[in-house]
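We modelled each protein-ligand pair independently. The example shown here corresponds to the adenosine-5'-triphosphate entry; the chain sequence is given first, followed by the ligand as SMILES.
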Amino acid sequence: MSKILVVEDEAAIRRVLIKILSEENDSYQLSEAEDGLKAMELLKKEDFDLVICDIKMPKMDGVEVLQASKKIKPEIPFVMISGHGDLETAVHTMRYGAFDYISKPPDLNRLLNTVRNALDRNALVSENKRLKKKVSKNYQMIGESKEISFIIEIIEKVAPTEARVMITGPNGTGKELVAHWIHEKSERSKKPMIEVNCAAIPSELIESELFGHIKGAFTSAVKDRAGKFEAANGGTLFLDEIGDMSLSAQAKVLRALQENKISRVGSDKDISVNVRVIAATNKDLKKEIAAGAFREDLYHRLAVILIDVPSLNQRRDDIPLLIEHFAKKIAEEQGSVPKVFTEKAVKLLQEYDWTGNVRELRNVVERLIILGGVEISEEEVKLFARK
Ligand SMILES: Nc1ncnc2c1ncn2[C@@H]1O[C@H](COP(=O)(O)OP(=O)(O)OP(=O)(O)O)[C@@H](O)[C@H]1O
């Protein structure tokens, strides 16, 4: 259902507009106002998905309505209606944020197309906002321990720069979360962050995955395909588990970092890319270098800034906050009220050996929420928390 407000002082034209729109789509919910002041009253009280607004009106003209509405509800698209002699003003309204304008008498097809486009665009904007909110909530980094505060401080400093970052730490400590945060707080956040789990891709496919390939480069290459470096152009490429990358792929990544150029597998044509690389690993790369399994020059290129995420056992102070955070998130996902963990239950969980893993803590909280009562007690933790 789309709510549309028609603002037009000429009753005959208003009636025609309402008739055209209601016949076009019976899910349009139509309201009307015969002057600008009435329109503003309605705009303050109700939410609309679109306003169709005449320019020349007594009391308050269409341009004033547009400007006043942009101040209180900037997201509502406006389609202006221009009569003879105010076409120039109509063109000008685009600068004040009007979506489009149509001329009087309104042409049926043009009107309906413009309305559909404006509504589609509005739906897209709302969806983007919703997704954006969801993303930033999902990647919230919880913790007030000095270890996490330090990491948050580094993220704040390094995110707006172009510096490459290497994130190390045991499994499930939040390395991916750190990478997402850096991307989201950077200028590049308008462009994608592309993730590649280097450990999950067979070594013979990693080069094609990262750099793409041309048709015929190998048996299964039936058509040209862009790789992740190209997909991340303008944004961030997150190379997770980089310690598992083959040496030949490492050599190519090094070249991409040095020259900002890549070439697809099977092609000798260079393609320029502008990508910020963030890498993560749970391996000790110094050891990997000593064993000849990781290129030292690549390490230095990648680890301009090093962020080491400590294991959960080293920041037990954060556990109560994390339990509360996960309980709330799980309740949101299930559409239920968050369960409360008793103080003793929290204390017990705080003392457990988490082998460094926040993911493990989240799973345990989820299990306790499913199996436990309204209030999770110490006994329930003893019963259900162990692996
Ligand atoms: N400080 C934190 N606040 C909130 N959630 C966290 C925090 N740290 C980790 N998590 C959550 O724990 C889970 C594991 O985190 P993440 O995937 O970032 O870890 P990782 O170190 O990249 O793991 P792996 O090494 O297995 O790839 C995710 O669901 C993440 O949202």
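Residues 141-143, 169, 171-177, 240, 282, 322, 325, 358-359, 362 surround adenosine-5'-triphosphate (CB under 6 Å).
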